[in-house]
From TrEMBL:
<dbReference type="Pfam" id="PF09754">
    <property type="entry name" value="PAC2"/>
</dbReference>
<protein>
    <recommendedName>
        <fullName>PAC2 family protein</fullName>
    </recommendedName>
</protein>
<feature type="compositionally biased region" description="Pro residues">
    <location>
        <begin position="334"/>
        <end position="345"/>
    </location>
</feature>
<dbReference type="InterPro" id="IPR008492">
    <property type="entry name" value="Rv2714-like"/>
</dbReference>
<dbReference type="InterPro" id="IPR038389">
    <property type="entry name" value="PSMG2_sf"/>
</dbReference>
<feature type="compositionally biased region" description="Basic and acidic residues">
    <location>
        <begin position="315"/>
        <end position="332"/>
    </location>
</feature>
<dbReference type="InterPro" id="IPR019151">
    <property type="entry name" value="Proteasome_assmbl_chaperone_2"/>
</dbReference>
<feature type="coiled-coil region">
    <location>
        <begin position="240"/>
        <end position="267"/>
    </location>
</feature>
<feature type="region of interest" description="Disordered">
    <location>
        <begin position="289"/>
        <end position="345"/>
    </location>
</feature>
<keyword id="KW-0175">Coiled coil</keyword>
């Protein structure tokens, strides 16, 4: 492995010896930013809290530009406004005056092991005790029900009261690999995964960002306000509901999803007695039962929101998805299975 310490550069004004931050939040994109959840978390933290730039990764060594082409403008007879990708480490101060680190940017395409080693080196440099990853995944859930977080961790003590979701094999993301590698070194990592309605995967859906920020406050001990996100959520909900009201097919589709969701939550709610809590195999079987309960006659995406993964590789984006504002960048990776308790990262 190439020396991981050469992959990151501090800003000239930063003396890393003075930084001692307990928490590092990582929002590197994985398989596309579903519901713009990570982008909204980044924007919210950097727009509402005091922050400073600590340093950047050398993205030329770890990015696949053909796979994730940066934007550029063509203006009459020349090119302009090229925006290169950036992986940036910020120091942010929450409302209680507690500093924490925020690592933003796209998912690295190359040298995953080296990037993970660089993050571990940064943890040692700045006395980081806990890494928290945050992301959204598309799931067959209605927007009229609360967003639930799936939680993973390198130690069960980090997510008290959490119950597992069975065992399965899937395509890895960088965040999943990094979580395992840091866990193997005895580091504490928590993963927060917001289940975003899959028919809203290509739109900005503030509820996913709200769920992740609330998870950061609860599990990382931070104090991050969510008032501006809640205002955005009310506006987004009104726009989505207005579009749904104009389509009987969408109303029927979402109504079916609500019934399926409510029936599943009622029939498969976990008992309160500890001795009656099902094991991982039983929970996995419940997930299979849920999938089997989904209506196989669901209309295709060109007739409304579909129950199943959204294909982010398709060339056309259908305008009758609620909140669809056209294609978004970054949705070109493998998609997670249509299971409300299975993260793709």
């Amino acid at each position: 492995m190439i020396d991981p310490t050469t992959l990151f550069s501090y800003e000239p004004t930063i003396d890393q010896r003075t930084i001692h931050d307990r928490v590092m939040v990582v929002t590197l994109g994985s398989f596309g930013d579903v519901g713009a959840s990570q982008a909204q978390v980044d924007e919210h933290l950097l727009n509402t809290l005091t922050h400073r730039k600590i340093g950047t990764f050398d993205v030329d060594q770890i990015m696949d530009y053909r796979g994730h082409r940066p934007p550029i403008d063509f203006d009459q007879d020349h090119y302009d406004n090229y925006v290169p990708p950036s992986m940036t480490l910020h120091e942010v101060v929450d409302k209680s005056g507690n500093p924490f680190l925020l690592l933003t940017g796209p998912e690295p395409a190359l040298q995953w092991e080296r990037v993970s080693a660089t993050i571990e080196w940064l943890m040692d440099q700045m006395d980081v005790q806990l890494v928290v990853t945050a992301q959204g995944v598309p799931m067959p859930v209605p927007h009229t029900r609360p967003i639930n977080l799936l939680k993973v961790a390198t130690r069960p003590e980090l997510i008290p009261g959490n119950r597992g979701s069975g065992s399965f094999r899937m395509s890895s993301s960088f965040l999943a690999m990094m979580t395992q590698r840091l866990g193997e070194k005895g580091r504490d990592v928590i993963g927060l995964v917001a289940r975003v309605p899959q028919y809203l995967a290509d739109t900005e859906y503030p509820d996913g960002a709200i769920a992740m920020v609330n998870g950061l406050n609860e599990l990382a001990g931070l104090n991050i306000p969510v008032a501006s996100l809640e205002q955005a959520s009310h506006l987004a909900r009104a726009q989505i509901d207005a579009q749904v009201e104009q389509s009987e097919e969408l109303q029927q589709m979402i109504g079916q999803m609500e019934e399926q969701y409510d029936r599943y939550m009622q029939d498969h709610s976990l008992p309160m007695n500890e001795e009656d809590i099902p094991d991982a195999d039983e929970i996995g079987q419940e997930m299979e039962d849920y999938l089997a309960s989904l209506d196989p006659g669901t209309p295709d995406s060109d007739k409304g929101p579909q129950v199943g993964p959204v294909d982010h590789d398709e060339d056309e984006h259908h305008s009758d998805r609620p909140g669809d504002n056209g294609p978004r960048d970054g949705h070109d990776g493998p998609q997670p299975p249509a299971d409300p308790d299975i993260p793709n990262d």
